[in-house]
Structure formats: C-alpha cells, structure tokens
Input
Amino acid sequence: MNSTSIKVSRRLKWQYPVIAVVAAGAAGFGLMHASAAPAAAKKKPGATALIKKNPPPALFSDADVAALAKQRQAQKSTADALFAQWKKAHGSERNDRAFAAWAEKQVPAPPAKAARTAELHQVQQLAKTRTAAGKKAATWLELYGKKDIWKLYLHDQHELISQSQGDVEKARLKAALKLAKTITDQVAARDKQPAPYVLDPSLRPDKHLTARQKGPYSYPSRHAARAGAAVTLLSDWAPHRAADYQAMAAQIVYSRIYMAGHVSSDISAGTLVGDLVGDYLLNAAAGTGS
Output
C-alpha cells in the first residue's frame, strides 16, 4: 500500500466530530429510555456510531482497484441503455415487484464453465499476494460495505438539507439497498454459481465448509449491487462527491475478490443490477417531483 491507499479513509475521518456528537446524543437517549422502560429492547447502533467505533484502516491503493473501477463504470452505459426500455414501457411508474422481475431478466447468464474457471484462477493468484494489512482492509470493507458506509455518506449529505428532504432520501436509499438485494438473490437462486471459496476451500479455511456444500452462490455480487445503487443515488444528490462514492465502491468490490467471495463476472453482474436500481428509483422520484 502507498499514500494513495488512505485517501478514502481520510475522507471519512473528518466526519468523526459530528458523528461523535450524534452518537453521544443517541447514547444519552438510550440510557434515559432504558431507565424508563427496562423491558424494551436496545436500539441497534446506527451506521455513524458503528463506523466511529471501528474507523477504516488503510485501504487499498488506487492502483490495486483501478481495473475494477473501470469495470464498474463500464456497466453504467449498459444499465442506462437497458433502463431506457423499462422507462419507455412504464414511464415513471414505481412498481418494485414488476421492476425486480424485469431487472432479473436483464442480467446475462454467467460465463461458461471455462471462462469462470479462468476467473477462479485469477482469484487464486491474487490470494497468494494477500498481506495482513490487505486482509484487515478487506474485512472492514466486507463488513461495512454492505450498507453502513452508504448510510454514513447519506448522513453527511443531510447536514446541509432540510429534514423533510433528508427523510425522503433516507427512505429512497433504504429502498434501493433492499431492492438490489432482492434482485441479486433472485438471480443467484436462478444461476447457482458457487463462490470461489466454495470451489476452492483453501482460499478461505475460516469458512468451515461442509462436504459437498454448493452455496453460497456468488453471481451476482450483493455488495456490488448495493454499491451501484447507492453510488447512482448519492451522486445524483451530491454530484461534487461522486468521485468519492466511486472510489469507495471500487474498494468494496476489490475486497470481495481479494478475499475470494467473488470473481470478476460476479462484480459486473452485481454492478449492472445496482445501476438499474438506481436509475429506476431516480426516475420514479422525478415522476413524483420529489
């Protein structure tokens, strides 16, 4: 890793004083609430509190993630062209169930066996280069790259907008992350492509796989889908921060290959799903004028 590897974590750390105030307030409320109603369940910590408690380590270098960053961005034009077909037929209608069924059909079949085997070999070669620092970065990105980092970025945006608009965007991001997961789960169940560490258990001995285990299935990547959806929405709401969001997405998807959770085609398919979801929700919002 070099100096560029900490750019993203530096972008996050300036937010910590604000996060500390929010977390302290939430903790105080939690104590008061607990004393008033001991039987009530403890509220789960929010994304800001979680990441403040466990801030990002030095992440991967720009050079490490460059190829996947380009691969992610290449999916955007494909997604936009495909979404134009949905928009032509449905306008700004929001029908999540119908859209999910349509989006599933837009995801191409996974690569043929020979091509996917070649992708597995790439993951195996990358695994040989793992370092302690790389594993630490990948572990953090896998944990917080699902949803929390995107919620934190949205919290940052909300410091400068009205409460009502903030509530709308929060609901929309939540819907995007959920819809991206729904579609990827549907495609994974359809195509049944085992994760790299299932095909080669030596890549992740910590997973303790059982004999003849087939799942989890990795095509398409949930992390990539959620990242694609979040980047599309957040970049529309704060265009001047788009490069930061793209940089974090590249870090997240690289970490998934680094730790043998996915191969390259899983990332492409997941990103396509996420970009479609982002386009869909922005289009629906434009139809409501919100």
In short: The chain has a mean pLDDT of 87. The longest helix spans residues 62-90. The chain is about 70% helix and 0% strand.
